[in-house]
Write a structure and sequence with these properties.
By secondary structure, the protein is an alpha/beta fold. It has one domain: NAD(P)-binding Rossmann-like Domain (Rossmann fold). It is built from 8 helices and 9 strands. A 7-stranded parallel beta sheet has the order 3-2-1-4-5-6-9, with helices on both faces. It has a two-stranded parallel sheet with strand order 7-8. Keywords: Fatty acid biosynthesis, Fatty acid metabolism, Lipid biosynthesis, Lipid metabolism, Membrane, NADP, Oxidoreductase, Transmembrane, Transmembrane helix. One of its GO terms (molecular function) is NAD binding. Catalyzes the NADPH-dependent reduction of beta-ketoacyl-ACP substrates to beta-hydroxyacyl-ACP products, the first reductive step in the elongation cycle of fatty acid biosynthesis.
């Protein structure tokens, strides 16, 4: 039986690709989402990670049906983009509570079983924006930057228990969200990316699959950019 993996926000885009990839790698995979829709072969669990009670219930379901979580991929996140002077407190609070505090909640809950088993893989999905910044995304950039400090602190705390914690920072990835961008805007983004094109969700899934594997057992506290070179040097 493969190890148990939990992916948050596994119903679409990058999270869905990660969940599907881990299934092909032989993991027993569960994925959370607010509506419970997930790829075939994945245990879907409805969960809003801003609610601690729902986080507890989701982990209890996974543990009952699959076993203790050995690999956690914290991917769930939202955006509420607007310029700094127009950003309301609610816009800030919602993004921080989901992207940063919600990730803290699932990492804290997953750490229980990982420490007991003396094995765990924690992979946080950040963003190149968290490293280089982005106009109109002060809240999102702050939340994604915070994940680096979170992961590196966890790596130091839990490393002696066989638990690694790493961060993947996607660049501009072709998803349903970017599908709505006009050709001119996509061309502008492509011009900023050294490899000259947007990435695919599978590019992120490949990086996560590696960091979750036994081959990455001596990698912890790392930030792995998957951005076509956009954020190099940060």
């Amino acid at each position: 039986m493969g190890r148990v993996a939990l992916v948050t926000g596994g119903n679409r885009g990058i999270g869905r690709a990660i969940a599907a990839r881990l299934v092909t790698e032989g993991y027993r995979v569960a994925a959370t989402s607010r509506n419970g829709e997930v790829p075939e072969g994945v245990l879907g669990v409805a969960c809003d990670i801003t609610d601690q009670a729902q986080v507890e219930a989701a982990f209890a379901t996974v543990e009952q049906q699959l076993g203790p979580v050995e690999v956690l991929v914290a991917n769930a996140g939202i955006t509420r983009d607007t310029l700094l002077m127009r950003m309301k407190d609610d816009d800030w609070d919602a993004v921080i509570d989901t992207n940063l505090t919600g990730t803290f909640r699932v990492v804290r809950r997953a750490a229980r079983a990982m420490m007991k088993a003396r094995f765990g893989r924690i992979v946080l999905i950040s963003s190149v924006v968290g490293l280089i910044g982005s106009a109109g995304q002060v809240n999102y950039a702050a939340s994604k930057s915070g994940l680096v400090g979170l992961a590196r602190s966890v790596a130091r705390e839990l490393g002696s228990r066989g638990v690694t914690a790493n961060v993947v920072t996607p660049g501009f990835i072709r998803t349903d969200m970017t599908a709505g961008l006009g050709e001119d805007l996509v061309a502008k983004y492509n011009a900023q990316i050294p490899v000259g094109h947007l990435g695919e969700a599978d590019d992120i899934a490949n990086a996560v699959a590696f960091l979750a594997s036994d081959a990455a057992g001596y990698i912890s506290g790392a930030v792995l950019p998957v951005d076509g070179g956009l954020g190099m040097g940060h």
